[in-house]
Design goal:
InterPro entries: DUF3467 (IPR021857). It comes from Winogradskyella marina. Pfam families: DUF3467. This is DUF3467 domain-containing protein. There is one protein chain. With 107 residues, this protein is α+β, with helices and mostly antiparallel strands. It has a domain of 64 residues. Helix content is 30%, strand content 18%. It has three helices and three strands, in the order H-H-E-E-E-H. A three-stranded antiparallel sheet has the order 1-2-3.
């Protein structure tokens, strides 16, 4: 790989990932709308605030089915580790949120 020649400390197979300041701030989301086709999963992250009749999609992530499955597995493993360290995450029943666009998804 060309990067190995530029950076001798970079081990073979290791990926150098950069995180710029703006992305590192993150985006708050309390709703994920998930849709899929034969070739991709689309996850829209939304922030819904009480008393606000309208919300916008804050971020859209498009994944291949294989990456969606890997994300599911990785998220499950991380939730298990979190609960082992901090106790069970309680899932409070929420009233259904009426969505007036596209097919219904689940979060």
């Amino acid at each position: 790989m060309a990067d190995d020649k530029k950076n001798p400390n970079n081990k073979k197979g290791q990926i150098n990932i950069e995180l710029d300041e703006k992305v590192a701030e993150g985006t708050y989301s309390n709703l994920a709308i998930i849709n899929h086709s034969v070739s991709e999963f689309v996850v829209d992250f939304v922030s819904i605030m009480p008393g606000t009749p309208k919300s916008k999609v804050k971020s859209r992530i498009i994944l291949t089915p294989q990456h969606a499955k890997r994300l599911l597995k990785a998220l499950g493993e991380n939730v298990t580790r979190f609960e082992n360290a901090h106790g069970e995450i309680k899932d409070y029943e929420q009233p259904p949120i009426p969505l007036n666009f596209g097919p219904t998804g689940q979060a």
